[in-house]
Every structure is written in C-alpha cells, then in structure tokens.
Amino acid sequence: PASQSSEEVLLAAIAAGTTPDICSNIWPGAMDDFIATGGLVRLDKFPDYMEYISARVPADLLETFRAPDGHFYQIPWKTNPIMIVYNKNIFRDAGVDIIPRTYSEYIEVGRKVTRDLDGDGNLDVWLSHRDTKPIWWQRFFDYYTFYIAASGGKTLFDGSEIIFNNDASVKVFDFFQQIYKENLFAKTTFVGDAFILGKLATQIAGPWHVSHVEKFRPPGFEYGIFPVPVPDDYEGPVYTFGDFKNISIFGTTKYPEATYEFAKYLITAEADLKLLEYTLQIPIRKDLTTNPLFEEFFTENPNLIYFAEQAQYTRGMDGVSDLKEIFDAISQEYEACAIFNRRDPAVAVENAAKRAKVIMEWNRSR
Description:
The protein is α+β, with helices and mostly antiparallel strands. The protein folds into 2 domains: 143 residues, Periplasmic binding protein-like II (D-Maltodextrin-Binding Protein, domain 2); 203 residues, Periplasmic binding protein-like II (D-Maltodextrin-Binding Protein, domain 2), CATH 3.40.190. 41% of the residues lie in helices and 11% in strands. The protein has 15 helices and 13 strands. Strands 1-11-2-12 form a 4-stranded antiparallel sheet, covered by helices on one side. A 3-stranded antiparallel sheet has the order 8-3-9. It has a two-stranded parallel ribbon with strand order 4-7. Helix 7 crosses helix 8, helix 8 crosses helix 14 and helix 8 crosses helix 15.
C-alpha cells in the first residue's frame, strides 16, 4: 500500500494479512503498534533465542528491546550511533586544541569557531546547525540524542511511565537555549552540504556521514569524530541515540522455523561484515571491535571505529504507540525554549511532560 513510512505500510499489511515473512527495517518505536495487532511472532518461543541473542548483544542494551509483556519480538540488528563529526581545519584555524567533552567546553569551542571571516558583519562559520522546524523526528538528533547522553542512557519512559521530566532534560533544554542565544548554531538554510563547504565546525551525525564526507570532501579537508557532549558534572560512559533498525518475523509466515533460521543467518559475523562493507552501518554485536574478521574493514575505514566503539553505549526508542505525538509536544516546547528563548527550560520540560500524559490518557480513553 502507498504510505509515508515503512511502519504505516507494515501496519496496513498486518490488517490486510499481506505481511512478508520477515522484515529487517523494523523501527523499535513502532513495536507497541505491531504487537497490539498480533502481527509479530514472539521470538523467545524459539528455544535458542535468548542464548543466541545474549551472546551477540550487551545485556543492558538487550533489555531495552524487551516488550512490555516481557517477551521479545525483534532481533537487534544494526545501529547508527549519533556522534559529533568535526572539521579539524576549522578547529586548528580558530586555535582550538581540545576535543570538547562537556557542555561548557563545547560552547567555548563554539565561541572561537563561530566567526565573521571577511569583516562584512555577517557570520561565515558556525559551531553547527540543526533543522529547527518543530517536526517530531527532528528532535531525535538534538534533544533526544543529548538527553540520552545527559541521563546516562535513559529514554523517555520506564515501562509505561513517563520519566523525561527530569534534571537531564532541563540541562539539555538549557544547553541548546544558550547555544541559540549566542548564535553558535546557524538558523539559516544552506544550499549544499554546509559541513563540507567549511561553514560548520561540527555536525551531529551518524556513520552514514563518513561515506558522504569521504566522497565529497575537497583536497586537504580533515575531519574527526568525538562523543556527544555531556553536562559538566556528568561522570560515566557517554551514551547516545542509536537509531536502530531491527529484524522481526510476521505472524502470516507459513514457515516460522525456517524464517527464524534465516534471521539468525542475517546476524552471523559473515553477514555483519557484508552489512559493514555495503552500507557502513554498524551491526549490534559485542565483539565488533575485537573479532579478527572485522579488523581489515576498520583498518580501511578508521573513522568508523569510533562508531563501532560507541555502539554498545546506545539507546533507541520506547515502543509506545503515542511516541510521535509525544515528540511533537517536546518539539513545540523545545522550539519555544531553545530556539526562541521564550520559555524557561524547567517550565518547558514540565509542559512537555504534562502534555505527554494528557496525550496518553486521551488515547487510552477512546
């Protein structure tokens, strides 16, 4: 069926009974909808699922994919950890000799690199740029990425309870409010890739950006990668948004066992190497940086090792059916607070959480 997203297509196919046997493009944020329709095969009914998947996926990360009913309906497959790609030339020219770890360090770097180069009174280089339109999925790559980092790996929910009305969210809103207040992030719309054109010192991006930069960077363009900045008082490993796509088996299959065996093949080390080579996307596996099978690939693609190391410290989306509406609420408060400086960060976060609760209560009362 025609639709705007693969999730909508799959939901329509579930209703019509025309789903494929297997899909490797499952967004975790849609899992509640898929499970509620009875459209997916429960994978932990296969005797070796837990043993097989536990050998591949770190335990704390695996738990984030457990459904509210306690079972598993998806195989964690690949991730695009969001990190900071930076222009070494701009850093060097601005006298920046550190890799910023904290909010204050990142902002201080921003004050040095955000400059008017030709003296015409207009800025020519900025610290970074994000699409500021209040569209729900745009917040994945600013608020949500930085929230996961600031909270030590939390998501918006704990089970069915909203938990993002917390200090980590307030710090993230405050951080971006300061960023935009000081014009460190460009608000303009660029023609072409502003990072490759040398107009942005940093870019919030996933591993897909590496192949793009490698293909289009001009001679002498040097770049590197570092983790998402965290609050100044944060200690511990730095988590980030993982932008996962996973594998699920649909209940319409006539061959569940054979389909499951095929799914297991898709996550073998040999298949994961092909995934890396063809897509530059990161398989979710514990031994990614230690297995000799992948050594040559990372030697040839050294900048991707940063994303591979980050992969175990990633979080995805809560599989709740209200997620798009909740992110819409967050987006509107983020815009009022961070972009337009019209709302106190704590008030904005509280407003978003209150609206999220109303959304959930309303949807469940219908």
